[in-house]
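Dear colleagues,

For the upcoming journal club I promised to circulate an example of a predicted protein-ligand complex. I picked one with magnesium ion because it came up in last month's discussion. The inputs are reproduced below in full, followed by the predicted structure.
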Amino acid sequence: MGVVWCIGCPGAGKTTLARSIAAQRARSTGRKLLVVDAEGDANFRALPMGSTVSELPKLLVEHNAVSFDAMNAGKQELRRLPTFIERAGRLVVLVDGAHAVLDAHSSAGDVWVRLQRVHRHAELELIWTTHHLGGDVPQVVQACAPELYVFRTTSPAALKTLEREFGLEASRVRGLERGKYIKVEMGFSAGA
Ligand SMILES: Nc1ncnc2c1ncn2[C@@H]1O[C@H](COP(=O)(O)OP(=O)(O)OP(=O)(O)O)[C@@H](O)[C@H]1O
Ligand SMILES: [Mg+2]
């Protein structure tokens, strides 16, 4: 059980890996999968979709995997969603496009950060993807010693953050091919 982050530039392969980790964890734990889809990824188009939190209980009873339309949901719904997830518990949650929900300066962002801290208690698996490694995301990432999969990254600011926070060499991260990543765990780094 735990928290997973997939970080890297657009098209690097984050959602593909996140989806496969999420599906595997849902299978092995027998838990339902909730995809918080902030990017409208084609990967999730086949899933039954809710756009309000009140639709989710019924959808989750009827299906093993559902998505939440975070792209079109209002701020109010995005604020209610993590509270719903924490109360429901025992879910695998994939947030595809973390920056959309993690506005660190909003109270909604705080509730999502809290979810990371309480994931064990609530028996949640949390899998995040982001290509936006700015603002307070590094602090959020480190809030609970997650498994981190770093894909190709090119922005100088993001490379600097990865080097400073996780000791990853910029030239190595910039040179990763599509679908390739460096796995970082609790301060250790191992190539993949
Ligand atoms: N391991 C891999 N080997 C080869 N191709 C891959 C691999 N992983 C992903 N791809 C392909 O690369 C493309 C981009 O993958 P994906 O959508 O997972 O990237 P992403 O990092 O989530 O991009 P975005 O930030 O735009 O959402 C897809 O066409 C996918 O099929
Ligand atoms: Mg993606």
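Two points we might discuss: Strands lie at 3-7, 32-37, 49-50, 65-69, 91-96, 125-130, 147-150, 182-185, 188-191. The chain has a mean pLDDT of 89.

See you all on Thursday,
B. R.
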